[in-house]
Amino acid sequence: MTLKKEEGPFVLTREEAHVPSLEDLPPVAGRHVLVRADLNAPLCSKPGGGYEVADDFRLRSSVPTLQWLRSNGAIVTVCSHLGRPKGRVDPRYAMAPVREALTAMVPEITVMENLRFDPGEETNDPAFVRRLIDGFDYYVNDAFGACHRNHASIVGPPAHMPSAAGRLLHREVEVLYGILIDPARPFVAVVGGAKVADKLGVLRSLSQRVDHLLLGGAMCFTFLAALGHEVGASRVESELFGEARSLLGLHPPPELPSDLIALSPEGELGSSTDPTGAVRPFELDLLPGWQGVDIGPATCASFAEVIAGARTILWNGPMGVFEDARFAMGTRAIAEAVASCPGFSVVGGGETTAALHEFGLEGNIDHISTGGGATLELLEKGDLPGLAALRASRATQGS
Ligand code: 3PG
C-alpha cells in the first residue's frame, strides 16, 4: 500500500489499516501453525548460574494468541529473536530461559531457537524463509515489537501461506491507528527520553496531529540550547539545533519545561552521598557545569494540568533520570497524571513501561504498547513492513 502524503501527515483509512485476524484463517484444528512472537525480554543472571527472564511483560502479552490457537486444536510452534547476536550462535542469547517461562504459561507449545543465530533472518534471505516455514500450514504474526524490521520471519512467510495477525498485534494496530486516524480531542502527547535524533520523525508527525506536544527528558536540552539557554553540562546534540528550531516553529509548537532540576559538577548520578547543595531547581538557565536531570515542580504541575484535560493521551519517554530516586519526580508526576486522566491513555517504550511498573501504575493505563522502535515508527510513518506483508497476504490469498 502507498501512503498518501499530498498534504500534511499521511491519510490512511481504518479499512486500509486493517490486517487479517485469527478468525480469518482457515480452520486450524490439527494444523501446524508458526507463530512469530516478540519474546525479546530482558534477562538477568540466575542464582547458581544461567539466565532467567527479568521482565515477562512481552511473554504474558503473547499468551492470548497461543491459547486461542491451542484451544482451537492447532499444533503451535513459536519463533522469536532475543537480543542482537549478529547472525552467530551465542549462548548469552539462547532461548532456553524464555522457553522455560513461556511453556510454564502455555504448555504443549514448541519454542524454536533464537532466529538471529542465523544471518538469514536479518538479511531476509529467501532460503532462510523456506527453511523456516517448512512443514507449517499457517503463519501468525504477533511480534508487533519487531514489525518495523524487514526481517525474514516478519515479511517472508505471509507470501507463502494463509497468514494473520495474532491478538496482541491486532490490538496494537487497532489502538495505534485509532489515535492516528481519529483520536478523541484534545489529543496530548508527552515525549521524553535521551536522544532527539531517535525522536525527530515522531515529533514532526505528532506535531501535525496533536493539540499539545509536551517535551521533557534529556532531549529537551537540545531544544533549550537551540533557543540560546545556558544548559551547563547537560547532554546536547548540537548538530540538531536547526531541526530543533524548525520543530519549535511548527503548529502547535512543542511545549518545553519551564523549570528543571540539575546536579552540580561535584554531584554524582546514583550517589547517596553527594555534597550538600549538589541538587537544586533552576528556572531555564543552568550554571556552567551543572547537568539537567529532571523537569522541575512548576513543569510537573503545568504538564499535569494539560494531561488532565486530555481525551487521548500518548506518553513515550521518561522526563528525567528516574532510576535515581532523587530525579524520579518528573517521571512520577507524568505517570500519575496519565494514569488518572479520564481520557484514553496509551504508553509506549521500554523505559516508560519500566517506570510505570516501578510506580505500580500499569493497571491504570488503557494500552501499554509492547513496541519500542516499532511504536515510534508506526506513529511516524503510518505503516510497518510486517503489517504491509500481512495485508498483501490477504490480497494474494483472496481471504
Ligand atoms: C525491541 O526490543 O524493540 C524489539 O524486540 C526489536 O528488537 P531490535 O531493535 O533488536 O530489532
Count of distinct structural domains? 2
Order of helices and strands: HEEEHEHEHHEHEHEHEHHEEEHEHEHEHH
Strand ordering within the main sheet: 5-4-1-6-7
CATH fold-level assignment of the largest domain: Rossmann fold
Within CATH, the superfamily of the largest domain carries the name Phosphoglycerate kinase, N-terminal domain
- Which geometry do the CA atoms define? globular
Ions, cofactors and other bound molecules: 3-phosphoglyceric acid
Largest sheet descriptor: 5 strands, parallel
Q: Please, what is the average pLDDT?
A: 94
Question: How would you describe this structure to a colleague?
Answer:
With 399 residues, this protein is α/β, with parallel strands linked by helices. The chain folds into two domains: 8-12 and 16-166, 3-Layer(aba) Sandwich (Rossmann fold), CATH 3.40.50.1260; 185-342, Rossmann fold (3-Layer(aba) Sandwich), CATH 3.40.50.1260. Helix content is 36%, strand content 15%. It contains 15 helices and 15 strands. The strands form four sheets. Strands 5-4-1-6-7 form a five-stranded parallel beta sheet, sandwiched between helices. A five-stranded parallel beta sheet has the order 9-8-13-14-15, sandwiched between helices. It has a three-stranded antiparallel beta sheet with strand order 11-10-12. The chain is globular and about 65 Å long. The model is unreliable at 1-7 (pLDDT under 50). Residues 38, 40, 84, 145-146, 149, 372-373 line the site of 3-phosphoglyceric acid.
